[in-house]
Fold:
Amino acid sequence: MSELHDECGVFGIYKNDSDTDIVEETYLSLYALQHRGQIGAGIAVNNNGNMTHYKDFGMIPEALPEKEISRLENGKMALGHVKYSSGEAVDHENLAPLVMRYIKGQLAICMNGALTNYHELRDDLNKGAAIFQSNGDTEIIAYLIARARIKSATIEEAVMNAVSRLKGAYAVVMMSPSKLIGVRDPMGIRPLCLGKFGDSYVITSESCVFDSMGGEFIRDIAPGEMVVVDGEGLHSYQCMKSEKTALCLFEYVYFSRPDSIVDGVPVAKARQRAGKLLAKQHPVDADIVCAVPDCGIEAAIGYATESGIRYATGLIKNMYIGRAFNNRKKNSEYLMRIKLNALKHSVEGKSVIVIDDSILKGKTSKHIVDLLRNAGAREVHMRIASPMFRNPCYLTSDTTPKEDLIASDKSVEEICKYIGADTLGFLSVESLPEIAKECNLDFCDACFTGKYPVDVSNTSREDKYSQKIK
Structure:
């Protein structure tokens, strides 16, 4: 149960089927992306250039109540977005999709990722008398497109001009009055894929969306590629190129759903491989292997398969705790007790191997070990299906300060003592690419190695722009 959270999930659909309820399909598809963001959600609909939208805080049913989304006009295109907190101020203005009106009509946009040159771009726009409603990356991109569109013959040209100025990680989906557009950053750090629902085109963060809506996965959008859907069909432009690619490895470790395929590799397969490698690197004689739900399950299955030790359910997760409950009680230890419980009859008197995806601050891992011991486990051996998380991530997730990361200044032995386990083992950095060896992209492993694929020296949002705008 990692304490790391991805920022967002994006979704866009261009309707070519007369019987498709575009609002309903967008709403339902967001459930398939809920794991990528639980702080807020939104939908924007394009009806012949007139865009209506609604967004609010909470999980999907809380953020998008029926009485509100029923007021959205059915149209030709729609965007959907789920958000998790990042460096941006957590206020309503930073929820997405962002819908704005400019000289060429309306534009709706949402993104997943983080711009590392945010300050540079915002300062430049401020000099041009731009008025901001948020401190978000999305609004920066929208302004750049609006500015470029004045001098560009087409929206495609304006988008290519705008994204050429972006640095960092991003997967963007947007609507102009007549076109649905998706763009992926030139290094492919953020995932973005293309599919169909009937004859309608869909652009979204993960392939699991197509399965959930009964659609068809076509392909991953390539790094630096822009895809455009309009009345004439699908168009592709390679608008940016990079000498290197750097897909975030944490998509396979934690972020993506296990039933997704990310850049050619099934996520469940990657996690099971990680578990098998972990069993080879850190074997231990024990009675059962169990998982920290949900992201440790596939790795635990892999560990059990490779080691020959029986897989059993040792921990149960409460699936019915949402944001409304979390806001009632700020004590994190109390929340952990409510969210997770040990299955006493499975672990009592046994030597238990417990598999998790990562350790960040260490508090959750300590709580898990305590749960298993209190339930009667004779021994608790913790195995982590990724390397030691030593460095903040500035490109894909909310940034935990380096000083809060337990592995930044502690050895494996010190961490093991802190969490109270009998033994502790991490997957080696060298073997991590092996879990997704079929992927045609290189990887970003900066959270483990500190080797960032882009300059991250000016990424902090702890400044004047972080203040909530009245």
